[in-house]
Structure formats: C-alpha cells, structure tokens
Amino acid sequence: MSTSFSKIAVLAILSSAVALTTGCATKRSTSEVVVAPLGIPSGQADYTGAVIVDNPNAVITTAENLQAVVYFAFDSSEITAQAASVLDQHAALLSSNPAAGVVIAGHTDERGSREYNMALGERRAQAARDYLAAQGVPVNNIRVISYGEERPAVTGNTEEAYAQNRRAELSY
C-alpha cells in the first residue's frame, strides 16, 4: 500500500513541476518581430516566408508609386535624411488610411555572422518603424521582420553591392 501511495505522490509532484515550469503563453507587450527564415509553419505547405498584410487595393496602388526601400550606412540603423524623405511619404499614406498596414523587412550585406546580421536587420526595420510611429502611424499597423543577409538585392562583393543590400523594404 505504501509503495503505491509513494508512486502516486511522485507522479503528482512531477506533474505539478511540469505544469509550473511550462506555464502558459502570454501576449507580448512589445511589437511583433519575426526573424526569418523560420521554415514552414505546420500545415502551410505553400508558405513562402512572406508576412501577409491585408490592405485595400487603393492603398496598394498608391504604395506602388512610392519608393519602397530605405538604405543604411555600414553597420548602422540610423535613419538618414534621404531615408526620412522616403518614410515621410509612407507615413502620409498610412496616416490617411488608418486601417492600412505595412511590413518592414530589414536586410544587411553579407559581412558579419548570421546572428549579427539578423539582429542588425531587425534594428534597421525597427528604426524605420520607430520613425513612422513618430510621424503618427499606429505601431499596431506596422510589422517588422529581419532577413539579415538571407535575401540580397544584388550579389557581389563590392562596396556598391553591399550598399544596395543594407536596406529596409516596405511592403503593403
């Protein structure tokens, strides 16, 4: 009798320990950041890695007429005057369409480790997001993703190629 009671007690303690250590999922209080490539989410065989934003055709058409890329200096996530000019146009579009959303994808050149480049790409996308938010765009309408060096705009090992890959791209 005491052996069975001991086994039950041990199972109860182990079950409690598992329940306490796994906890439950909580909603993050910060904005969503997706680091890619993440692989294929379960049940989505045709997933391409793109984040889907559902916008009206009028917003998409207007956005197609805007420059969608901002560039950064080497090892920097600082918004330049030229980048601010591009982002101001997107801020105007998003402010005039309060339900519209945008995805900002951060990219880097190939120099640096994969981990460093993913973090730098994220900082670049977040810098663009923060700039838009400072212009009055609701942060909840902006998704941020980092591709690091994984999706170069151009190939090559020249400074010109590197400069084109150090960017954040806005898509609707």
Question: How many DSSP E strands?
Answer: 5
Structure annotation, total helices: 5
Radius of gyration: 22 Å
- Could you tell me the mean pLDDT? 82
Query: What portion of residues belong to β-strands?
Result: 5-15%
Low-confidence stretches: 24-47
**What is the first-to-last residue Cα distance?**
67 Å
Secondary-structure element string: HEHEHEHEHE
Explained architecture:
There is one protein chain. The chain has 172 residues and is of the alpha/beta class. The chain is 42% helix and 14% strand. It has five helices and five strands; from the N terminus they run H-E-H-E-H-E-H-E-H-E. A five-stranded mixed beta sheet has the order 1-4-3-5-2. Helix 3 crosses helix 4 (114-134). It is globular and about 45 Å long.
